[in-house]
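This week, look over our next protein:
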Amino acid sequence: MATRSRRPSFAALALCGGLALGLAGAAYGDSNALWNIVHHWCVPNEEQHGDPAPCRLVVVSGGEQRGYALLKDLVGGAQFLLIPTARIPGIESPALLAAGTPNYFAAAWRSRTYVEQALHRTLPREDLSLAVNSVYGRSQNQLHIHVDCVRADVRDTLRSGEGAVGDRWAPLGSLLAGHRYLAMRVTGEDLGLVNPFTALADGVPGARADMGRHTLVVVGATFPGGTPGFILLDDRADPAAGNPGSGEELQDHACAVARP
């Protein structure tokens, strides 16, 4: 394929990169733009020249079917997108629940350091979040995990109510962004032992057969005694009621929590 056999020019990279950016809440004529950027530009450029541009990072050491790329989103000063280098349309894809599929959420959490670098400061884990939108709440047909700051009001609500969040999915006591989310807690410094996609599919009745309607959010947490962990959040899209299932609504692309 020609696009994989030559080094893209700077102008072409800039143009191509621009097409992939600004995804949050935007309507795009090409729902495959994000896949095209990663597949035709970032991966070939990394493999042939050791340069992941227009992505910030490409990891394909285990093969393209198990790799991922990290792309800076134009929306916000520090928002990044973690994107599989395998063709995975979104949260509804059965591949995400198959044995041997990489834990993309774990990779996304490790990538939070890029958010911090963009902000020029280290953030408490409670200020950082990961989000995947439902089929109805996304503009692109390639899985991408939004890596960015959490909204301050969401952080504070979770912090005040975390004592009631157990290790099984249950309705959160308070609304988040006007929606009733399910929540569960997991412990651990990272997500190496917990795959949020599997936790959703196995823990919420009916979710495995209807994953496309679900949105999934992971927010860092520190539980009593200083135990590190996460709060997982799930909502189910209801377009007729005006709920597109966009967990990205819990993130703050202006990153107010990082301000002094």
